[in-house]
Design brief:
- By secondary structure, this protein is an all-alpha fold.
- It is 72% helix and 0% strand.
- It is built from 14 helices and no strands.
- Helix 2 crosses helix 14 and helix 5 (104-116) packs across helix 8 (158-183).
- The protein starts with a helix and ends in a 7-residue tail after the last helix.
């Protein structure tokens, strides 16, 4: 058996199926997508009838399209909401749950529960909550004496209304990752610190957070790249970028151009933009939140 582990040919044998899967379902479609961004395509599943004139026309349009810049601005806001709202709140909750003696399993289940609910169902649920007339939130505010109705899906509050459910849904995802990281920290370190007179707050600051550094970096990378691809919940609540195309994200705008406007080639161009931004931002995130090799 030891010869199997020494012989690298067996490693390649096991890696080959996964590599072929990536080539067929990831790399090849991405290359075809780049090719399609230079063609005139109106129907999915075709390569188009001819090249664009000039062939880079979609990329010129990408730079001059005001909705693209709106979607990029909204995506940046979504990234900030992910870092502060999702990862930040998840870190706080995981530290609180890790420092209680009873009910930890209950809180883990409650915080993770939104992840298992369909994003479409959540979108419909939050649509009912944020309804202008007879919506749950406006009715709740009326109980406290508010006399005017708030248009939560209007131009002023649309971005906030869109981001709040997304942040709420994925807090549990990062909570589970961070909670797992906390469980891997040796209890002997906490016991030694307690013997030396460290308070619970000091143990969190000087033991938990430093030893969670690599896990936090992973969560931030996942959050930043995930914000570029978020689609289902925002689209359910704000289809076609309503109101006035002000709530488009990069993912929802790509879908709109591909499936609604039937500009498949322009949708392919937007997909290339999303991939490039994902690669660049993930590398940048890794540099800014560099993982430590000390632990």
């Amino acid at each position: 058996m030891s010869n199997i582990y020494r012989n690298k040919k067996y490693v390649l044998l096991f890696l080959l199926p996964a590599f072929l899967f990536l080539v067929v379902y990831l790399y090849y479609p991405f290359l075809v997508n780049i090719y399609g961004s230079f063609r005139q395509i109106k129907n999915l599943g075709t390569y188009g009838t001819k090249w664009n004139e000039p062939f880079y026309d979609n990329y010129v349009k990408l730079v001059t399209d005001p909705v693209v810049w709106t979607s990029l601005k909204n995506t940046v806001l979504m990234i900030l909401a992910t870092i502060v709202g999702q990862v930040g709140i998840a870190l706080l909750l995981s530290l609180l749950v890790d420092n209680i003696e009873r009910g930890t399993q209950f809180f883990r289940t409650v915080y993770f529960f939104p992840i298992v609910i369909s994003a479409t169902a959540l979108g419909l649920l939050f649509n009912l909550i944020f309804l202008y007339d007879k919506g749950m939130l406006n009715q709740f505010l009326e109980l406290f004496g508010k006399t005017t109705l708030t248009d939560w899906k209007g131009e002023k509050l649309a971005i906030f209304t869109m981001m709040l459910p997304v942040v709420w849904q994925y807090v549990g995802f990062y909570f589970v990752i961070l909670e797992t990281g906390l469980n891997n920290i040796s209890q002997e370190l906490y016991e030694s610190a307690a013997i030396d007179g460290a308070t619970r707050f000091q143990r969190v600051i000087y033991i938990s957070i430093p030893l969670l550094r690599n896990v936090i970096c992973t969560c931030l990378t996942l959050g930043v790249t995930g914000a570029l691809k978020v689609f289902d919940l925002p689209w359910t609540m704000f289809p076609k970028g309503m109101p006035l195309k002000e709530t488009f994200l990069t993912g929802t705008y790509m879908y709109y151009q591909t499936m609604e406007a039937k500009n498949v080639d322009y949708g392919a161009t937007l997909a290339v933009l999303i991939v490039v931004l994902g690669v660049v931002l993930s590398r940048l995130t890794r540099r800014v939140f560099k993982e430590s090799e000390d632990f």
